[in-house]
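Structure Section — protein described below
Tokens — whole-number codes for backbone shape
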Amino acid sequence: MTATSSRASHATAAQPHPLLRGLVARDCPAVMGVLNVTPDSFSDGGQFIAPDRALAQAQRMIAEGADILDIGAESTRPYGSQPISAEVEVQRLRDILPAVVAMGTPVSIDTMKAQVAAWALDQGAAMANDVWGLQRDPDMARVIAERGAPVVVMHNRDAADPAIDIIDDMRTFFTRSLDIATRAGIPAGHIVLDPGIGFGKTQEQSMIVLARLKDLDQFGLPLLVGASRKRFIATVTPSEPHQRLGGSIAAHLLAAQRGAKIIRAHDVAETVQALRVAAAIESRR
């Protein structure tokens, strides 16, 4: 048995974290609502940085059917985002994240910093979402393992390279991330993989990844896909981020068809409706 097949077999047999069991054990993918409390996110930067607006948006997404909310206080947009310190990131979250946790819907902390993840998990966040797949902050895996939290491990690159085989690159990246997780003591059943649509990829590569999601089945782990309002949509039909609802839904329906268990979206109501209708139709086959 190869190392890859052994890893996949181990992952498949692993006992899933209770939160993940609830999110992925259904016919219709779960929906993760995006709440950016940043001034510079590509789609909605500045809209929800004020606590009152952020809390209202969280309540709205919960009412619209979000199964989990993903809160981030640092933009990770590929172009033009400004890095911030962990202290600034926590300051942006301080009046928002605990209040959203109190609403009762599970909260994911979207951060690449172990210090921020530790603070958020200690405040009641149920999951961590690391856009660098445990590979940027050397303390991230330890923080998550010690708190017994599930984690989204996302594929990323410092820069897009149109010459590479993006699927092979993802396989290598995820193998390294899973080795880091294993060494830190994160159980395989606590891990979700995210192919990172739009991160370190050309627009063509993002579409290839969506078309070939089944190639990641070898890891035996649930997949999260976030194609919401991403730039690749504009290469097919020119549009600004707020004009990409149709393309977002198309990408997410195809991702669900290819096995994605969690869909990360800005437009919760429309995404929930599309996924539920598609699942209802599919059940009549």
